[in-house]
Design goal:
2 copies of one chain form a homodimer. Chain A is an alpha/beta fold and 427 residues long. Chain A is built from 19 helices and 8 strands.
C-alpha cells in the first residue's frame, strides 16, 4: 500500500505536465506525392512505376465494381474542413506536427497510404505494396516499392524522431528471403515496426512454416508486427452488393493474419514478438478470447476432435494473447470501448487515423471527449497513450513535456459535451 | 385486449396436448450406409463411387493436416452412450422415430452426412456433395451424388412424412443449369428445402448474377434455402494450428453465403424466399444486424464511399433480414440465447443435431432444461418448435397431438436442474 507521505510528494494537480493527457495516435498515415516516390525508387523501376501510376489513374472509381455512390461532394466537404486539399499533411513535416499540435497529439505510429480517397492526390505506396496487401504486382516491383517507401518513411521519421514511429511495409507474401533482407534494412533505418500484407490472397497462409524465419527476425530486431485493415474480399466485384459485402467482411480479413499467427503457436516460439492489428476495431476479439480458453476440456461440441491444441499452444491461450497482441483501434467505436475489459484495457490503443477522412481529424479533441468522457481516467489514459508509450518504447519524458503544452486536460477529456463540430459526429 | 371470458374458454392447464412443448429439431442428419447409396446411384457412376469411397478410406484421419488428437476413446464412449455403434438411427426409420420419441421431439429437418466421426461408418453423401461443399469432385459425379442422396432422402421422408422435412443437396457451384433441373426434381420429390454449398471455394460467389435463376426457382417452388456449417478454411492444412484455425473460422465461412445473398439484394428481388443458416450459432448475427442499419447516413467512417446500398437494398436492411433469415442454431450456446432479442426471437430455431456427437442426443430432455430453464415460456416455445412449424409449414394438429404424448412438460423445461447425464454437460 502507498503511504500518505508518498502521495503528498506527488506533483500538485496543477502541474500541467502530469495532469494533461499524453495522446499517442497508433494509427496515422504518411506518404509523399508520386513524383517523390519515383525519386526514391531505384532507377530501373521508374518506367514500370509510371506505367503503374497510369493504370491506377485509369482504374479510379472502379473499386467495388464501380458500385460506390458519388464521392465528389464528400471530398469537397472534407477538403474544406481540413483546409488541405493537396494533402500536404501526409508528407510535410512541419505541417504534420502543426496538425498533431492542434489535435493535442504528442506522437503517432505511421502506416503507408495517406490518400485513400483515390481522387488524384497520390500518397500511396508504389505498386500497391501498402494497404492493398501487395496484390497483383510483380514481386520484384513490390520489393522495390517497399524499399522506396521505407527509405522515404525513415527520412520523414528522422525529421521528428521523438514524435514518429515508422512502420515499414514488408510484403512477406512476395518472398521470404527478400523479406529477411528488408527486415535487416528496416532495423538499420530506425523504423519501429513491420507491416505485413493483411491478406495473403493465393499465397501461403501465415500459419505455414515457411514464414517462421520472418517471425524470428522481427522478434530478434525488436520490430513489432502489424496488419492494417484495407484489403477486403477480392471476389465480389462482378456481382451486386460488392460495397456492403466489403464493409461486412473487412474486419474479418484484417483479423485473419492474427489468428493464423497466434493459433499456429508463433508466440510460443517467439516470446519477444508483439503483434498489433490496426484500424480493425477490437470488440470482436472479446468473443474469440472468451472462446479460446474453453475449446479444450470444457466443450462437448469439440470433444470429438480428441484434442484442440495438441501442443501448439501450451498454457492458457488468453494469457498468451494478452501478452503479445494489441489493437490499434483507431477511432474506437462505442462497442470497442464497452468491450475493453474483455479485450484487456492494456491491449487496446487509440488512434485518429490522420489524415484519412474516416478518422477524426481535425476534430480529435472534441471526439476524444465524446468517446472517453465516461471512461475512468486510468483506463482512458492507458488507451489514449500510455500503453502505446510502453509498446513502442517511446521517450516518455519528452512526450509528457510536450503534452504539458498541447495535450488535453482532464476537463477536456471528461468534461461536459459540446456541440459536434463539422462532419465528425457519427462513428 | 383479451377478455376474461376468452381466457376462461381456453383449454385447462391439464390438457397435455396444449401444455406440452412441441419440440421440432431444425438440425438433424440422415443418410444410409455406402452400399445403399451405391444402389441409388445411376449405374454409370458406381465404379467412380467405389473409387471415391476407397480414397476416402485412405484419407481417414488426415483432416486438419492430421493434427487432431486421438479420437478412438471418444468414439467408444459415444457409441456406448447411444447404444448405436452402427449408426442405424441415421437411416432406419423406426429407430429414428424411437430416438425422437425418447428425446421428446415431434419432427425434424434433415440434412445429409449423419456420420462425421469418419470412423468407418459411412452415412455421408456420395462424392462429398453434402457438408463438404462439393469441393474437389467432378461436376457430373457431384450431380449424380446429389440425385442419389435426394432420392434416398425422399424415400426416408415418405416413411414418416409428418415428422420429417428433407433438405435436398443442390451443389449450385457445379452448374446453374443442372441446379435448375435438380430443383425441379426436388420439388416433385416432396422435399422441403435446398442446401447449397456453404463454401463456394474458387467458384463464383453467391452475389454473382449467374445464380439469380437459382434463387428465383427456389422462391417459386417454395423451397427454403439452407447452408449448414462444416466446410471451413481450405488453406491451413500444411501449417500448424489447422484445427484451432478451423474452429476459429468455421462460423464465418458458414455465414458468408448469407451475407453474399442478403447484401446483393436477392430478397429484394425474391420476396417469397427464405434462408436458413444451420448449426452455425446465431449470436454473431446480432452484431451485423445492429451495424447494417447504421452504415448509410449515420456513419462518418463510411461517408467517404458516397453511399452504401445504392439501391441494392431499399428500406431498412434489418427489417428485410428479419423477414427472410432464420437460424437453425442447433444446441444454441448461452451467447446465442442471450442474444435472442437482438437476433429476433422469431428468427431463432433450435435443433439437437441428431446423431452428431457434438449434439445433445441422447440427453436432449436434460439439455433443453439446462439451456431454456430461465427463458420465458412464450420465447422458449417459439425457439424450440413453434417458429419451425411456421417456417416449414408443418402439420400443427398432428404434431401437437404427438407432443401430447412425448413432448416435455412446462416443468421438464423450466423446473429445477438435475445432474448432468453422460457426456453432454458442457456446451
Amino acid at each position: 500500500m502507498q503511504r500518505v507521505e508518498d502521495e503528498a510528494a506527488s506533483p500538485p494537480l496543477g502541474d500541467m505536465s502530469v495532469s494533461r493527457y499524453t495522446l499517442v495516435s497508433t494509427d496515422g498515415h504518411a506518404g509523399p506525392p508520386a513524383q517523390v516516390y519515383r525519386d526514391y525508387l531505384e532507377e530501373s523501376f521508374r518506367v514500370r512505376f509510371d506505367e503503374h501510376q497510369a493504370m491506377m489513374a485509369e482504374m479510379r472509381g472502379q473499386a467495388f465494381g464501380g458500385q460506390q455512390g458519388d464521392r465528389d461532394e464528400f471530398k469537397e466537404k472534407y477538403d474544406a474542413e481540413t483546409g488541405d486539399a493537396e494533402l500536404r499533411v501526409a508528407f510535410d513535416s512541419d505541417r504534420r506536427n502543426a496538425a498533431l499540435d492542434a489535435e493535442g497529439i504528442v506522437a503517432e505510429v505511421l502506416f503507408p497510404d495517406a490518400d485513400v480517397l483515390g481522387a488524384g492526390r497520390s500518397a500511396s505506396s508504389p505498386f500497391g505494396v501498402g494497404l492493398g496487401s501487395a496484390n497483383g504486382a510483380e514481386p520484384d516491383a513490390l520489393w522495390a516499392g517497399a524499399r522506396a517507401h521505407n527509405r522515404w518513411l525513415a527520412d520523414f521519421v528522422a525529421e521528428s524522431p521523438k514524435r514518429r514511429v515508422g512502420v515499414a511495409v514488408v510484403p512477406i507474401t512476395a518472398g521470404v528471403d527478400e523479406a529477411l533482407v528488408e527486415i535487416g534494412e528496416v532495423a538499420n533505418l530506425g523504423l519501429g515496426g513491420v507491416m505485413i500484407p493483411t491478406r495473403w490472397f493465393d499465397n501461403a497462409p501465415y500459419n505455414h512454416p515457411m514464414y517462421e524465419p520472418v517471425w524470428a527476425a522481427c522478434a530478434d530486431a525488436g520490430l513489432i508486427l502489424h496488419t492494417h485493415s484495407g484489403a477486403g474480399p477480392s471476389e465480389y466485384a462482378e456481382g451486386n452488393g460488392a460495397l456492403p459485402l466489403y464493409i461486412a467482411e473487412v474486419q474479418f480479413w484484417a483479423a485473419r493474419p492474427l489468428w493464423a499467427v497466434f493459433f499456429s503457436g508463433v508466440f510460443e516460439r517467439n516470446p519477444a514478438l508483439k503483434f498489433v492489428v490496426a484500424e480493425s476495431g477490437a470488440y470482436w476479439a472479446a468473443d474469440m478470447i472468451d472462446k479460446m480458453d474453453s475449446w479444450e476440456g470444457n466443450s462437448h461440441a469439440l470433444e470429438k476432435f480428441g484434442g484442440i491444441w495438441n501442443g501448439v499452444i501450451t498454457g492458457k491461450p488468453s494469457d498468451q494473447f494478452h501478452e503479445h497482441v494489441y489493437f490499434a483501434a483507431s477511432t474506437p467505436t462505442v462497442k470497442d470501448i464497452a468491450a475493453r475489459h474483455d479485450i484487456g484495457v492494456g491491449n487496446l490503443m487509440w488512434g485518429n487515423d490522420l489524415p484519412h477522412p474516416e478518422g477524426t481529424w481535425p476534430h480529435t479533441r472534441w471526439w476524444v471527449n465524446e468517446r472517453f468522457r465516461d471512461v475512468p481516467e486510468v483506463e482512458a489514459r492507458a488507451i489514449l497513450g500510455e500503453t502505446a508509450i510502453d509498446v513502442y518504447g517511446l521517450d516518455r519524458v519528452t512526450l509528457e513535456q510536450l503534452a504539458g503544452e498541447i495535450g488535453p486536460t482532464d476537463d477536456d477529456v471528461h468534461g461536459p459535451p459540446t456541440p459536434a463540430p463539422g462532419m465528425v459526429a457519427a462513428h
